[in-house]
Amino acid sequence: MRSNGRRPVGALMAALALVGGLLTAAASPAAARPEAAPARGTAQADAYTWKNVRVDGGGFVPGIVFNRKEKNLAYARTDIGGAYRWDQSGKRWVPLLDSLDWDHWGWTGVVSLASDSVDPNKVYVAAGTYTNSWDPGNGAILRSANRGASWQSTTLPFKLGGNMPGRGMGERLAVDPNRNSVLYLGAPSGNGLWRSTDSGVTWSKVTSFPNPGTYVQDASDTSGYLSDNQGVVWVTFDERTGSAGGATKTIYVGVADKDNTVYRSTDAGATWSRVAGQPTGYLSHKGVLDAKNGYLYLTTSDKGGPYDGEKGQVWRYTTATGEWKNISPMADADTYFGYSGLTVDRQKPGTLMVTGYSSWWPDTQIFRSTDSGATWTRAWDFTSYPNRSFRYTQDVSAVPWLTFGTNPSPPEVTPKLGWMTEALEIDPFDSNRMMYGTGATVYGTENLGNWDTGGKIAITPMVRGLEETAVNDLASPPTGAPLLSALGDIGGFRHTDPDAVPTRMYTSPTFTTTTSLDYAETSPNTVVRVGNNDSAPRIAFSTDNGANWFQGSEPSGVTGGGTVAAAADGSGFVWAPEGTSAVYHTTGFGNSWSASSGIPAGAVVESDRKNPKKFYGFKAGTFYVSTDGGATFTARASSGLPADGQVRFKALPGADGDIWLAGGGTGGAYGLWHSTDSGATFTKLSGVQQADTIGFGKAAPGASYQTLYTSARIGGVRGVFRSTDAGASWTRINDDAHQWGWTGAAITGDPRVYGRVYLATNGRGILRGDIS
Predict the structure, then answer these.
(1) Which residue has the higher pLDDT, 14 or 114?
(2) Out of 26, 467, 535, 634, which residue is the most buried by the measure of CB atoms under 10 Å away?
């Protein structure tokens, strides 16, 4: 089962290809300095209310952080979808980074988070999505003095990788528990250890720290994704070695180096040395100190995660004597996974829990000890194979799609306990509450004590408000469900009620990622979707508005979903899959496919929304049209259209040949174009400097033309815009608090509700906007 742990391939990479001119660091290599807040656009002219179309989760949560001074103050970090704060009264998560704008989309990837236990109002985020070229901008430290309600930023002189390999290790960012103006950051890519002495405003490299890390997942990877040095991966203070207002003297730091994975300073970071006698051959994913008993615990793996890891161990270091002890819950010979998740019960010293994060089959494993690791019990055990006994019950009725529509044979069960379980935390104020992150959700329990008394703990999703899907395509048909979504890693949903969690994802077949979908404009029960799978099928059809599906055949050579279009009456389809040398067309439901002529492979394809014989395509600056159901295409307009960057276009419902085209790149043609003659000619809208999406919704009262929506730069302002007069004028409908980073994948209005719009994000799910 693949998680939403994301994502160096597929739709995200297509998204990244679009973005240019992102923020670059202004700091010198020696130090990082604060920067002024990014320039914002003018206020919107029409107030909108924004909220998520509910999915509840859908992505990897690599970190959960509880504040150790204030009860019920907790945070979660995601790999591409920002950070969240727990709201105890509503038992939900509150998003904290929605104000990040288009130019700072990379800061939606959170590699670490630190909550200040001296001043609980303060919280810090280490932000940045990729350390390679996919993210042109440098990383940053974001700091807040009001629990994430607002932020200030310091751009670093290097990149951070919230979505890079090793992102489940940590926490890399830590606040000194005695002198909270001091923070440390473990950096990737050979950049070493960094320190701030002014509450995160300025940062300098700790030049005395001897080891920037050595471990790379795959040195032969030329993209820089798998070949990056995973670096310095966690920082832990021994709070006993300081007093209020004085810097903590003893600090432990974890490094991605199998021979030298733990270092220590005993003089408040002035000098450092490798801790003698430490285990070798593994990477320490986590290092957590039980100050009451004087034990430093390590969870280790032979790989950096979050997907890989075949072996691991758990170790205990006695800080008073220097003794190391292997306290692994399983013998090495029986271990087929690495350990990562690690937490100690602050109310019950000696109680700790760890996870086998990379135990994919038959399920993840969680281990618990109440005697400092001398003995362990497990969340599940084999009885007589393939049967298992369980120390827990699991109820996903609040998020029913977590079954993934599967019905596996023992020893597997559905729903799974989890996978990629690198975040695991016992509430420091409540021994009965524990939360852990998976590749798709946050699970938790509030009766953890039952584990030790022979009862069962009750595990449920604790994920409401945390929306972490990457959205590739959206459709709002005129009848049936108000919204159909194409999502990364969890496929997508038929959203019958945007305020309710869907009961199930698309199944029969299930795609790991849906890349494109379409419905027949005059027969909306006919729906098609395409997506990515390790093998066929990669195309599916529905005749009941997406409620049920059946798979279609596919041409030879298909490796990915690409784009797909349905004829206006559902009589045929055009498909431009990845991996093939052609675009294809079919009549009926894809029992056989024929190559289309006159159009290059890999073109983006769409259908006319009135004429069922007419289809359109675009690639590399040229627009194509077919009038025979996709059998043959003819090149039409090319002058002035974007030759580079990504382009999206749509035909207006109810009209023949009325087309809007958005896209381009900062180095060339970029904007919004309109054609009323089936693409023979296009007119560029002069007031739109950049545009990346286009969608249609119900016409405004008294208007004859459908409402247009776009994610664009208009009047020098980046935002989400609406036009009720066919593009003659535009109104910004989002505001500076609601920007969500990159919003360039898809947008659609609702044909039934004037003013309602659905917006795709890359990690913050689907946003629904309504006129306030």
Answers:
(1) 114
(2) 467
Closest CA to 283 of 233, 238, 323: 233
| Of the candidates 468, 456, 371, the residue with the CA atom closest to the CA atom of residue 417 | 456
CA–CA separation, 527 vs 542, rounded Å? 5
The tens digit of pLDDT for each residue in 284-331 reads 999 999 999 999 999 999 999 999 999 999 999 999 999 999 999 999
Beta partners for 605? 617
pLDDT digits (tens, 9 = 90+) for 566-625: 999 999 999 999 999 999 999 999 899 999 999 999 999 999 999 999 999 999 999 999
Q: Using an 8 Å Cβ cutoff, are 34 and 207 in contact?
A: no
Residue 325 CB-density burial (10 A; 0-12 exposed, 13-18 middle, 19+ buried): middle
d(CA 498, CA 753): 13
Q: Is the peptide bond before 157 cis (omega within 30 degrees of 0)?
A: no
Q: Is 522 helix (H, G, I), strand (E, B) or coil?
A: coil
Q: Which of 138, 157, 158, 130 is nearest to 16 (CA)?
A: 130
Report the predicted TM-score, pTM, of the whole model to 2 decimal places. 0.94
* Known active-site residue 79: yes
Q: Are 596 and 631 in contact (CB under 8 A)?
A: yes
45 pLDDT tier (thresholds 50, 70, 90): low
Task: Find the catalytic residue in 345, 427, 489, 658.
Answer: 489
Q: Give the mean model confidence (pLDDT) for residues 124-132.
A: 98
pLDDT, tens only, 644-686 = 999 999 999 999 999 999 999 998 999 999 999 999 999 999 9
Annotated active-site residue in 56, 79, 101, 238 = 79
Do 190 and 212 contact (CB within 8 A), yes or no?
yes
Q: Which of 176, 309, 189, 306 is nearest to 244 (CA)?
A: 176
DSSP-derived secondary structure for 248-281 = -S-EEEEES-SS--EEEESSTTS--EEPTT---S
The arithmetic mean of pLDDT across residues 711-727, rounded, is: 98
| Distance from C-alpha of 749 to C-alpha of 757, rounded to nearest angstrom | 4
Average predicted confidence (pLDDT) for the chain: 94
Three-state DSSP at 141 gives strand
Residues 6+ away with beta carbon under 8 Å from 497: none
Coil, strand or helix at 13: helix
b/e map of 634-656 (b: 16 or more CB within 10 Å)? eebbeeebbbbbbbbbbbbbebe
> Do the strands 457-461 and 392-394 form a parallel or antiparallel pair, or are they unpaired?
parallel
